[in-house]
Specification:
The protein has 443 residues and is α/β, with parallel strands linked by helices. The chain is built from 15 helices and eight strands.
Length: 443
């Protein structure tokens, strides 16, 4: 690449510097019309950030004098890792590169450079673009393979739970939902709406955890179909006022149909659990929370679910305040006991479908599925209050008062899960910087 003449490098750098905005505009104008590329580009945050990033990237790879090779290589690999993280298909990246080369060649062609210099510069520009794409693709493949291994490890870990306990728990949750519906039906006045099965504790568990635990199992699709029939057909029919002597008989018929559907669902649920093997791995050894290695797999799935179901989810980044002081004053054994009790307190404060991770050290991360921003903030404040008012036992019967700082970030449509993690982390840092024992919300 260093064989290009100084005139060639200078011309290319001038055009790239001058027309970076035009190149970025052309890129987005074309790619946003592509049905596969559009979902990655229509979010306002993505558009605003990536438009400026695209301009800098074009100017960087065609700079004269060029930046240090190690810096440029590291940047291309970072871009490839981001593409893998948001599951942007590599063929779309190649399509974008081809588009940029075409527009750049057109801009070079209208310059008043001699024909020989023009051909050299166009060839050189294409070679640099191909090299950048090669480095991106290498990082993309490496990161995708690592992600696939983690996805599979998470699936195996999920199967490693105590299946018999989890099965009975979900059967119990289903029974409670059915009893709630029957109670509402026999209470006057007749309800205008009944609680949807898909939004129940069982529904949240099924959509957000069972789909990963039992991915590919035929029972998953059958259970989903049953839930859809119940929510879309049976429950609305039960809410329609019935007149005349047949009203009670019609309602009883619908209740029998509902019971049949629930019995079928329980049968499929049992079959689902029975076909799986138990595997012991994947939890943090101290707190028994999810290992953070599974965070990319879970977050990627939640972004997909949120997009498909048009829902929101939130992330709470939690840090135990003055944890170093606890270790220094009472010893590391006391610190470990505090973390174990903190993990249990958090687990007992969230719903069945939510996720709790040991993020690192004294930091824990909670992912609240299908939740409004206001409710997420209320849960974060409830957690903060429970820590503040709870007594934590340590060795020798001593008790400690422990507080937490919490950062809240709500999914805003950005396809890169690391962006959401960073927002939650920054909000948590703000909570610590402004006095600790408080909740801060990411903008």
């Amino acid at each position: 690449m260093n064989s290009a003449s100084p005139e060639c490098r200078r011309l290319l750098a001038e055009v790239a510097q001058r027309d970076a905005a035009l190149l970025a505009d052309a890129f987005y104008a074309t790619m946003e019309r592509h049905p596969q590329a559009a979902p990655f580009l229509t979010n306002n945050v993505v558009h605003d950030r990536l438009h400026a990033s695209m301009m800098r990237w074009v100017q960087e790879i065609y700079a004269d004098p060029p930046q240090e090779a190690a810096t440029v290589v590291a940047h291309q690999r970072h871009v490839g890792e981001v593409h893998a993280r948001i599951h942007l298909p590599i063929h779309l990246v190649a399509r974008g590169a081809r588009l940029l080369k075409h527009v750049l060649n057109n801009q070079l062609a209208v310059s008043d450079a001699p024909e020989t210099l023009l051909r050299e510069t166009q060839t050189y520009a294409g070679q640099l673009m191909d090299l950048a794409l090669e480095l991106m693709s290498e990082a993309y493949q490496r990161n995708t393979q690592r992600s696939a291994r983690n996805d599979e490890a998470y699936r195996l870990f999920s199967l490693g739970q105590n299946m018999s306990v989890e099965r009975e728990k979900q059967r119990s949750v289903l029974l409670e939902w059915g009893q709630e519906v029957l109670f509402m039906l026999h209470r006057l006045p007749q309800p205008a709406v009944l609680p949807a099965l898909s939004r129940s504790e069982f529904g949240l568990w099924f959509h957000h955890k069972a789909s990963a635990m039992f991915e590919g199992a035929p029972e998953v699709e059958l259970i989903a179909e049953i839930m859809e029939r119940v929510d879309e057909t049976l429950l609305p029919q039960m809410c329609v006022p019935q007149d005349g002597e047949d009203a009670s008989r019609q309602l009883q018929s619908l209740i029998m149909t509902l019971q049949t559907e629930l019995d079928n669902l329980k049968f499929q649920l049992s079959a689902l659990f029975e076909r799986q093997l138990e595997v012991e791995n994947g939890r943090d050894t101290l707190t028994r929370l999810l290992n953070r290695r599974f965070l990319p797999s879970v977050l990627s799935r939640e972004i997909k679910v949120a997009t498909e179901r048009h829902t929101q989810f939130a992330m709470l980044m939690i840090d135990v305040d003055h944890f170093k002081h606890i270790n220094d004053e009472y010893g590391h054994e006391a610190g470990d006991m505090v973390l174990q009790q903190a993990a249990m307190l958090i687990l007992n404060s969230v719903r069945n479908g939510d996720f709790v991770f040991r993020y690192g050290g004294e930091e824990m991360l909670v992912m609240l599925v299908e939740i409004d921003p206001q409710v997420a903030c209320r849960i974060a404040e409830t957690l903060r209050h429970r820590f503040e008012t709870n007594e934590f036992l340590v060795s020798m019967g001593r008790k400690l008062q422990v507080t937490i700082s919490v950062g809240v970030a709500v999914y805003d449509g950005h396809p890169d899960y690391q962006y959401l993690i960073n927002r939650a982390d920054q909000a948590m840092y703000e909570a610590k910087q402004t006095g600790r024992n408080r909740v801060c919300v990411a903008p």
